[in-house]
Design a protein that fits this description.
heterodimer, A: mainly alpha, 14 helices, globular, B: 299 residues, two-stranded antiparallel sheet, 12 helices
Chain lengths: 337, 299
């Protein structure tokens, strides 16, 4: 019974996190036709900012002994801050909102800056250049300990400590709220004239440009907007697991899996993406659980996961390129006088 | 230390010159990036380890590694050309290479696990102890450098002097036009992708003989490879060849300079150099250095 509940919560958490990230990526790839393989740079930025900003700020606010360092004395500082945060709900909420604001601003700024060298590249190189930049940031995160503890990572205090025994529910509820807001926002955006412009750019950018629309500017807007959403995933991920580990933000988990979810669910259909996310999350959980039972193989069964994923994507691309839920044709409501 | 770093630069540059050359040729013919190529390099490098484990020189693994690399790359080309014929766009083709890359990545890990459990090898390995010394330098230094230069020269002469080479040049310029002129594009493209795969196998063996290899390093391979291609020019095979040397030597220059100024820990940041270089080059010469040089000459 307990195991079942844990599994359901586990699936729910990953579903919410991956749905937000996949919807952000889908806005770029499914609607605008920009395949950003290096999207994982933004969750990484979110995670790093969470490690740098709120808790060091909390140390100043709560007058924690200045001789203590957040990284070097991490377990002690986390314990002290947890005590303070449990007694100060307003400060906790304030720190959380401030972090979210900083993350959104920084992600937008980085995305805008990256777009400059990116737009100088042509074709396929444009799609994978962010991957190179993301990997550089990961190398910095892994090697430079003051950011997030390097290869060992950092423990972070629970910003929802003030919820008492239900402190673990806080980050999940926050993720659910953000997911609902983003889903509504994206659906609204996709059904608007701007959404139709995005689809038109995806289909034929040249034709759209000939109609007087600024394709580059629109692409930039979408990249900046979706990068802010993606960065929030990094914050939520770290808040839920109460740790920031640069190693966790890798291309497989935060980029390739999302692409697979979109391809599987259906490109150009937000509901399809959610189905794709749920399907792959359940498949991954099954694979994860089966590791405990299948031990007789001469290799780690975990390595069958990328093989399975790759085969699944390939089969879908060949036999059902529209995904589980294909894209619906755009309909425009007639205006009645 | 400087000598070791120079060997480092030469082996790295030569290996990536072979890879980037093939990578650019693939890009020109299919119009997308083959994300699976770095994983093929790592997969084939395990054959060198296998040969060492059974008591042979890693150099003897070159034919096997090249053949495996060639067959894998040819299979990728077959899948991609099938997808292209069905009307798949560049995004779909890129995702296809990503899927294949995942399959090869998983297979490499399965292979690495299997041989480490049955033969007692390590998942992370370097084969420099199995190399021979010539004039006090490791053999791979000469082999990798000579191979890359020789290959570039042969390919250059092949494109200029040989009838088949001229046909390949025509394909690289305009595939459909070459087809109209009676060039057997199917056969030549098959051969070209097979050769680029062989180069990946060769690069895998050379790399493992100086550097440490493990399956996860594919991403660093990839970063260096695309940096070399962008620096040299994404549609210039010989440009990417020079780009690889620029990347390799810049990394070493960065280590020497930054270690003297800041400290020895800076070597860990070497993989940032190629991307920083790309950002700079894109502002000076958006189409790569070869194009910039050609433009300067014309003016």
């Amino acid at each position: 019974m307990v195991l079942g509940s844990v599994l359901i919560i586990d699936i729910l958490v990953f579903f919410l996190l991956y749905s937000i990230l996949s919807l952000a990526l889908h806005l770029q790839f499914g609607y605008t036709g920009i395949l950003n393989v290096g999207i994982y740079i933004y969750p990484m930025i979110g995670g790093f900012i969470l490690a740098i900003v709120p808790f060091r700020l909390a140390m100043i606010i709560f007058n924690v002994d200045p001789r203590l360092d957040f990284v070097a004395d991490n377990p002690i500082v986390v314990r002290i801050l947890n005590d303070y945060l449990a007694r100060n709900p307003l400060t906790s909420v304030g720190l959380l909102l401030f972090t979210i604001a900083v993350v959104i601003i920084v992600a937008m700024l980085v995305s805008w800056l990256i777009s400059y060298p990116l737009l100088r590249l042509e074709g396929a190189y444009q799609k994978i250049f962010t991957l190179a930049v993301a990997e550089c940031l990961r190398v910095i995160g892994l090697q430079y300990f003051p950011i997030a503890g390097g290869v060992f990572g950092l423990g972070i205090p629970n910003i929802f400590k003030w919820l008492g025994d239900f402190d673990w529910v806080g980050p999940i509820a926050l993720t659910a709220c953000i997911f609902a807001i983003i889903l509504l926002l994206i659906i609204k955006l996709c059904n608007s004239p701007f959404g139709r412009l995005l689809k038109a750019i995806r289909e034929n950018a040249l034709a759209v440009e000939s109609l007087g629309k600024d394709v580059t500017k629109t692409q930039k807007i979408i990249m900046v907007f979706s990068s802010a959403i993606a960065a929030l995933v990094g914050v939520l991920y770290c808040l839920i697991f109460m740790t920031v580990t640069p190693e966790a933000f890798n291309v497989d988990d935060f980029s390739f899996w999302c692409i697979a979810m979109i391809v599987l669910g259906g490109t150009g259909n937000n509901w399809g993406v959610l189905i794709g996310v749920l399907t792959i999350i359940i498949l991954r959980r099954i694979s994860y659980i089966s590791r405990n039972y299948i031990t007789s193989l001469p290799f780690d069964i975990a390595w069958l996961e990328p093989i399975m994923l790759g085969t699944l994507i390939l089969l879908f691309l060949i036999y059902r390129s529209t995904g589980i839920l294909p894209e619906k044709p755009t309909t425009i409501k007639k205006q009645v006088n | 230390m400087v000598v070791s770093l120079l060997i480092d630069a030469i082996v790295l540059s030569s290996t990536f010159a072979l890879l980037s050359f093939g990578f650019t040729l693939q890009f020109i013919t299919i119009g997308t990036i083959n994300l699976a190529q770095p994983n093929i390099v790592i997969f084939t490098s395990y054959f060198a380890l296998l040969f060492c484990m059974v008591g042979y020189s890693p150099y003897l693994s070159i034919p096997v590694a090249s053949l495996v690399g060639g067959i894998l790359t040819l299979s990728i080309w077959k899948i991609l050309s099938y997808m292209k014929k069905r009307g798949s766009d560049s995004n779909t083709l890129l995702i296809t290479t990503l899927a294949i890359s995942l399959i090869i990545y998983g297979s490499t890990n399965v292979f690495a696990d299997y041989i480490s459990r049955t033969m007692g090898t390590r998942r992370i390995f370097g084969l420099s102890i199995y190399d021979f010394n010539f004039l006090g330098m490791p053999g791979v230094l000469f082999f990798s450098l000579i191979s890359s230069i020789l290959f570039a020269l042969i390919f250059h002469l092949f494109l200029k002097k040989c009838k088949t080479g001229i046909a390949i040049k025509a394909i690289l310029e305009d595939q459909s036009l070459a087809e109209i002129h009676g060039v057997n594009t199917e056969l030549l493209l098959n051969a070209m992708w097979f050769i680029t795969g062989c180069l990946s196998g060769l690069a895998g063996v050379f790399y493992s003989m100086w550097f440490f290899v493990q399956p996860v390093v594919w991403i660093l391979f990839f970063v260096r490879m695309i940096s070399a291609c962008i620096i040299g020019g994404t549609t210039k095979p010989f440009g990417s060849f020079f780009g690889a040397f620029i990347v390799g030597f810049s990394e070493v220059l960065f280590i020497i300079v930054s270690s003297n100024i800041i400290g020895p820990g800076m070597a860990a940041y070497r993989s940032i150099v190629p991307v920083a270089l790309v950002c700079i080059i894109l502002f000076i010469a958006p189409k790569g250095i070869i194009e910039a040089i050609e433009k300067y000459r014309r003016e």
